[in-house]
Specification:
Layout lengths: L6 E5 L4 H12 L3 E6 L2 H13 L3 E6 L5 H15 L4 E4 L14 H29 L3 E6 L12 H21 L4 E8 L12 H5 L9 H12 L10 E4 L12
Parallel strand pairs: 1-2, 1-4, 2-3, 4-5, 5-6, 6-7
């Protein structure tokens, strides 16, 4: 129960990786704030945790909006007494040819994925600093920050920005004992794992496609109070997939 009584805010926690993170931290004793723009799914995620005897609450937030982020952090601090850990996980993608991608679509991806990390970290840091015990932030980027497929410009740019933002804020917030790190997940399956093909697993040197628990373990490392020397780091968690050279036959 390493995170007993720690207050953890997780954005984009209604589904996928975010929900897996919420479940993992709750099971480790934390008070979890499940936040998402999708209220019905977010409430279901939080209520499911509470039904299991864990501490959880749902607070809606559209991370594209500064005022909603401020409200989220204020309510989270009221619920938990302070904010100890923030996981910036909310994000969207838009796969569209650069010839067709509009400025509004570009801005929506950048604002949801990258700008929200800055705003949420800034607002959470206010409460972390006030609490006097520092805190830990983990920004969820993507292996798309270091490699790409066609028609992924907005998503790739947003995820690359998150990596750079993470080390910048680690330097700025270090004097307040606030650590900021970044994780770039690879293929993390959040659907029906049993439907994956053997070929899907074989393309990973680790021998399998990832699951949300793999990202939770990385978050645990970065947010463990004992790891106070680890900040400004970028960890790729992809089963070695981005290190495997591929040749056309």
């Amino acid at each position: 129960m390493k995170f007993q009584d720690k207050t953890v805010v997780i954005t984009g926690a209604a589904n996928g990786i975010g929900r897996g993170l919420a479940e993992a931290y709750a099971a480790s004793g934390a008070r979890v704030i499940v936040s998402d723009v999708h209220e019905e799914q977010g409430k279901l995620a939080a209520n499911t945790l509470k039904d299991q005897g864990f501490h959880a609450v749902f607070i809606p937030c559209d991370v594209r909006k500064e005022e909603e982020i401020k409200r989220l952090m204020n309510q989270a601090a009221q619920y938990g007494g302070t904010i100890d850990i923030l996981i910036n996980n909310a994000g969207i993608s838009r796969w569209k040819s650069p010839y067709e991608l509009t400025v509004d679509e570009w801005d929506d991806v950048i604002n949801t994925n990258a700008r929200s990390c800055f705003l949420a970290t800034r607002e959470a840091a206010v409460h972390m600093k006030k609490g006097g015990n520092g805190g830990a932030v983990v920004n969820i980027s993507s292996t798309r920050s270091i490699m790409s497929e066609p028609n992924s410009e907005a998503y790739a740019a947003s995820k690359g920005a998150i990596v750079a933002l993470s080390h910048a804020m680690a330097v700025s917030l270090g004097p307040d004992e606030i650590r900021v790190n970044c994780i770039s997940p690879g293929w993390i399956e959040t659907g029906d794992y049993e439907e994956l093909r053997s070929e899907d697993h074989k393309q990973h040197p680790a021998g399998r496609v990832g699951i949300p628990a793999d990202i939770a373990k990385a978050c645990f490392y970065f947010t463990d109070p004992d790891n106070d020397f680890v900040t400004g780091s970028h960890l790729v968690v992809d089963g070695g997939m981005t290190r495997k050279m591929i040749y056309e036959p």
